[in-house]
Amino acid sequence: MTAEGIVVGLIAGFYDVLTSQQVVRTRARGVFRKNKLKPTVGDRVKIQIDDQGTNYLLEVFPRSNLIGRPALANVDHVLLVMSAVEPDFSLQLLDRFLTFFAWQQVAVSIYLSKGDLTGEKALTHLKSDLDYYQAIGYPVFDDWSGLAVKLPEAIGPEQIWTLAGQSGAGKSTLINHLKKDLSQETAAISTSLNRGKHTTRTVQLFNLGKGFLADTPGFSAIDLTPIKVNELGNYFVEFKRASSQCKFRTCQHLKEPKCEVKRLVELGLIKRSRYDDYLLMRTAIANGQLPEYLK
Fold first, then answer.
1. Domain spanning 229-294: which superfamily?
2. Is 125 annotated as belonging to a binding site?
3. Residue 165 known to bind ligand
4. pTM of this prediction?
5. Where is pLDDT greater, at 185 or 161?
6. 3-state secondary structure (DSSP) of residue 164
7. Which of 56, 83, 274, 292 is geometrically suited to a Cys-Cys bond with 114, CB 3.0 to 4.6 A?
8. Listed residue (227, 209, 206) closest to 282, CA to CA
9. What's the CATH number of domain 67-215, 3.30.365.10, 3.30.70.920, 3.40.718.10, 3.40.50.300?
């Protein structure tokens, strides 16, 4: 017989598929390799269930997206984990993540981790920075208790949420809190590099709320080079809103007259660091600069 489900795990060439009744361990037929299609966690699939225990993937349904390293398909929402310290908080990295996921048309919420490891003055400054992001439409969590209550309620039926963020930001620790029966490996921070060691080696989906949460390896470099430089402004949500008031429909918010984005930057209504990061990303994309791990 056949059934439909979601790939929730990948282990040594086997695919664990959650159907409406059970989790079925399957193999992929050779036709996928022939067609250069590699099934991945998050895929909606059709499987063949054999009474003798020989189960196969028959079909992978069209994906809405494919993100991450390793890949995760059909992501509905990203919980972006940014640490206050160890590794140090970076607005530039935050903006790169937000731009990348806006390009992928994936919604983002932000969680500030390790706030208890920094001083009160520094934490107040970080929260002030994050207030801006909340104001432009990104939900922000800066305490564990609030996140623990609201996250399961926020995940809709069969939605796939994933954690993302730089290595060492505390994603696996967060998973441990959310799923008490898990014991994901955690690791100390490499202080010499000010970044974490990769501790999560596979992608898995776990039931949370009415949908799923994925645990994925962290990464601190984002490849923005596939984005067209003249479309970059569309992925800064406040730029896109303001651009309807620019004199020129194709305004790039550089030296054009009567640019609403630049006017709001001067008034302090658009965060100056956001505009500066926009300029840096334009230069990187125009020059074809790859993040370090992709070179």
1. Probable gtpase engc; domain 3 (1.10.40.50)
2. no
3. yes
4. 0.85
5. 161
6. strand
7. 83
8. 227
9. 3.40.50.300
Boundaries of every domain in the chain: 2-62, 67-215, 229-294
At 37-95, the pLDDT tens digits run: 889 999 999 998 887 767 888 899 999 998 877 789 999 999 999 999 988 899 999 99
> Is 258 within any annotated ligand binding site?
no
CB atoms within 10 A of CB 269: 12
Residues 185-199: b if buried by 16+ CB within 10 A, e if exposed? ebeebeeeeebbeeb
The pLDDT, as a whole number, for residue 52 is 72
The C-alpha angle with vertex 97 and arms to 76 and 156, in degrees rounded to 5, equals: 15
Residue 295 labeled ligand binder: no
Q: Which CATH architecture has domain 2-62?
A: Beta Barrel (2.40)
**Which of these, 173, 178, 107, lies nearest to 149 by C-alpha position?**
178
pLDDT digits (tens, 9 = 90+) for 219-263: 556 789 899 999 999 999 999 999 999 999 999 999 999 999 999
